[in-house]
Amino acid sequence: MRHASRRLNLQSTAFALALWLTGTCASACARGLRHRDFLLPLPTVSAAQKQVPRALVAYLRVGSLPAGARILVRARTGELVGSATPYGAQARQKPGIYTVPIPQSAIQNNAVLLQVELIRKGLRSRAPTRAEIQSIRLAYIPVTQSVPKK
């Protein structure tokens, strides 16, 4: 009887979890969320690096995508900050690394929230899978300041 009670309790818990997940997905789909959020902390910067002009970029590791697909990257505000569009044989072979510049306005509380979606012509956009966006990391890269010609 004790084992039957545990089994019933486990089944009830599994059913409740499945129901909750279904509801979560349904409510997210109803709200039209077709992107995947990445909340990324800012990289640490040494004292020496602070003296050099630098820009914040995101490195996207993009796996195999469906033919004709591309990845759009938006800031927290919905502003488009970049895209990754594989083409040719590379598009369906090994992962590629894409660099997307991140505007200062996207930084909030020492972190950046990126909204990533996959779009294909003629189809509704959707959130990319973990295999399609394998990782995203932030980094500072040095920049040179150009002097206008006189």
Topology (elements, then pairings):
Layout: H1 2-30, E1 36-41, H2 47-50, E2 54-62, E3 70-74, E4 80-84, E5 96-101, E6 107-108, E7 111-119, E8 133-142
Antiparallel strand pairs: 1-7, 2-5, 2-8, 3-4, 3-7, 6-7
Please, could you describe this protein's structure?
The structure is a single chain. By secondary structure, this protein is α+β, with helices and mostly antiparallel strands. It folds into two domains: 1-33; 34-142, Jelly Rolls (Sandwich). 22% of the residues lie in helices and 35% in strands. The protein has two helices and eight strands. The chain has helices spanning 2-30, 47-50; strands at 36-41, 54-62, 70-74, 80-84, 96-101, 107-108, 111-119, 133-142. The strands form two sheets. Strands 1, 3, 4, 6 and 7 form a five-stranded antiparallel β-sheet that branches. The protein has a three-stranded antiparallel β-sheet with strand order 5-2-8, with no helix packed on it. The longest helix has 29 residues, at 2-30. The radius of gyration is 21 Å and the shape is globular.
